Amino acid sequence: MRELGRLIGRGKEAEVHEEGEHALKLYRSADRKLAAFREATVLAALEDAGVAAPKVFGIENRQGRWGVLMERVRGPAWAEKMRADERTIEPCLKAMARLHVDIHGRTAAALPRQRARLTRDIARTPLLGEPLRRRLLDGLAERPDGDRLCHGDFHPLNILGELEAPTVVDWLDASLGVPAADACRSYMLLARGWPDLADAYADAYARTAGIGRSEIDGWLPFVAAARLAEDVPEETEALVAMAERV
User: Where is the Aminoglycoside phosphotransferase domain (predicted)?
Assistant: First the structure.
């Protein structure tokens, strides 16, 4: 059995191992074959679109688990820079906003639709009462269904390298949709892990994109309600409160 290389990264659903000049993102659960193939497909589409994402080289099964063999990205996550020196926080947030807006200026083939994903997750979570669920689904149906590239998990842990030449990782949740909704998802994730930075980032994104902050905030009930389907019990109370703002 082929041995795994040195562990160089760890997340909720997968871990990343050194594989020579490449990296192997290996899902923790043995039943994630579909996720591995889906992520590889997304990365291939992003390469065609010229997006700052790792190049993909194939799918592998190691020790009964499925993984994606991809380009190994050098350099620390931006979260590490920001934690190590608070003077880097402001330039990192501004660079994040520029990078996010650049991503949103692109599109790619063969990606799911953002609004369809939000609808599915709101419909399937058992953590919403039916009257609130119906209000959310009705409101979401009236929202635009965009065609811009959206990352779905854009935050400082998923951006690596230098400010001038970053690479964005973890594209499994990528979709085609509305940029403001993707920025709202980033705001919500930051509000949980980096509460002091959430508003600063949303404001920086709005300025860079040339939109009003209200365009981002208007998506919050829908993005928060969909997040309930991701099994994050420590966030349930806060997410339901956000969803009730619809």
Answer: 20-214
Sign of CA dihedral 236, 241, 245, 246: positive
Secondary structure letter of residue 224 according to DSSP: H
For 37-47, letters b (16+ CB in 10 Å) and e give: ebbbbbbbbbe
Count each helix (H run) and each strand (E run) in the chain, helices first. Answer: 10, 9
* Integer CA distances (angstroms), 199 to 86, 93, 179, 228, in order: 17, 11, 17, 21
C-alpha distances out from residue 193 to 133, 186, 228, 234, Å: 26, 11, 16, 12
CATH class of this structure's domain 78-243: alpha beta
CA–CA dist 32, 47 (Å, integer): 23
Give the start-to-end residue ranges of the domains of the chain: 7-71, 78-243
How is 119-167 classified by DSSP, letter by letter? Answer: HHHHHH-TTS-HHHHHHHHHHHHTS----EEE-SS-SGGGEEEETTEEE
User: Which CATH fold topology does 7-71 show?
Assistant: Phosphorylase Kinase; domain 1 (3.30.200)
Question: Which DSSP letter does residue 188 get?
Answer: H
Question: pTM of the full predicted structure?
Answer: 0.93
Rounded distance between C-alpha atoms, residue 4 and residue 239, angstroms: 38
